[in-house]
Amino acid sequence: MNLGKIKFLQPLKNKRFSLLFSGQLLSDCGNWLDYIAIYTLLVYTWQLGPDAVAAQVIAAGVPWIFLGPLISVWVDRLPTKVTLVVSDILRAIIVFCLFFTTSLWLLLMLVFLKNSVATAFEPARMKTIKSVIPHQELSQAISLSQTSVYLMKIIAPIVGGVIAAQTSSSFIFLIEGVLFLISSVLLSFIPNDLNQTQSVDKPKFWKELTGGIKHLKTTATLLMAVILVSVSLFLIFLFEGLFVLWAKEQHLSEQAYGMLISAIGLGSLVGVLGGGSWEGWKKSPLSSISSAVFISGILVTILGIGGMLSFQLPTLVWSAMAFCAGVCAAFTTVPFGYILQTETPSHLIGRVTGSSNALQNVSTFLAPLLGASLAAAFSTNFVFLGAGVGLVLLGGISTMTVLTNKSRDSSNIEQKQENY
Fold first, then answer.
1. Chain segment 402-416, per-residue pLDDT in tens
2. How far apart are CA 171 and CA 174, in angstroms?
3. CA 247 to CA 161: how far, in whole Å?
């Protein structure tokens, strides 16, 4: 296949990026296999309840919020290739340990350790992309990287479910560990000159940490993008876990619910691939994110209103709206990644990525708890309606802000290319 003829595949002609992408595919597959393995182990094998599931969520989420920004300082200090390879090897060792785990507390400790190590991989990945990809292929590289996440989010749970049914939940950990080891081997072939650490006097640790936060606070475009994405994620995660309850209240069958989830997944793939193939959003990346948030808000609002008024629409209509919502939500990751890369110098990319991830994970950590509480106090449809209206307001207000201050959107592509 001639990769040059397919625009969003062009970065794969770059050997360094193709190695990174291959390693990320395997790592992402391992992460989502881990997801299905742990939950089936807790609920089906050990017969534990909501408390154990909640404890697992906390153990997995806390490192991204509190340790991520700290570890990202070391990501900027250390050679990127070393960070990527060691991260995969350590995660392989940890998941091999999970295979032998019979205690909930030991499992929680290993989940905490695994996610602590994982917080180094994401900023190192972003740092690698900035180092090896020319500006004109940046959006395609970000699109491919996000495609790996969404593709494995669909494939890995299916494969994991089949493996668990045929063997055991614990056996999945062995496969996951092998995937991480193969990923580390692929990443080890990235040339050694990648991101060599400069021999200059490094400032103190806390000064480096605050340097990344200061850059985030003083770069208007980047700060607005991080706030916009973090708040939109919070609103999305308010209702995401309630989809099954919404479908049940709409008297949709299990098969219809499956169609809704599949539609969201397919829409997510279309969204990230579309962001890499169509570059019109580069003229105004913040406006593009805002518009996508606004449209997704309208769709979610319709779902809430439809539930309240008991609209009896065909499953295909609901699935079409779910598909469009998936497109909008996933599309935003491409211009957001583009802003993060173009508005951040190379020596700060790890720390800024770590701080950004921490803010986003706070949203995804707290929102499901609040959403479940609101659904219990009021109704599922109330949560959908409230989140939808919130997304509409967020998208509308941010669009107006960008339009009244176009300089924030940094739409001068030539200037971006010079600074990249």
1. 888 765 555 444 455
2. 5
3. 22
Burial class of 375 by CB neighbour count within 10 A (0 to 12, 13 to 18, 19+): buried
Angle, CA of 342, 346 and 349, to the nearest 5°: 80
Q: How many Å separate Cα 402 from the centre of its chain?
A: 24
How many whole angstroms from its chain centre is CA 351?
17
Segment (H or E) for 78? none
Strands (DSSP E) contained in 199-346 are none
Nearby residues of 234 by Cβ (< 8 Å), 6 or more positions away:
363, 364, 366, 367
How far is Cα 32 from Cα 156, in angstroms, rounded to an integer? 6
Residue 90 C-beta-side C-alpha neighbours within 13 Å: 18
Q: Is residue 339 a contact partner of residue 409, using CB atoms and an 8 Å limit?
A: no
Q: What CATH topology corresponds to 205-420?
A: Growth Hormone; Chain: A; (1.20.1250)
Question: Do 42 and 53 touch, CB atoms closer than 8 A?
Answer: yes
Location of each CATH 1.20.1250.20 domain in the chain: 13-190, 205-420
Rounded distance between C-alpha atoms, residue 8 and residue 276, angstroms = 5
φ and ψ of 310, to 5 deg: 55, 45
The CATH architecture one would assign to domain 13-190 is Up-down Bundle (1.20)
Three-state DSSP class for residue 190 = coil
Query: For residue range 303-331, what is the model confidence (pLDDT) as tens digits?
Result: 999 989 888 888 899 999 999 999 999 99
* C-beta separation of 336 from 303 below 8 A: no
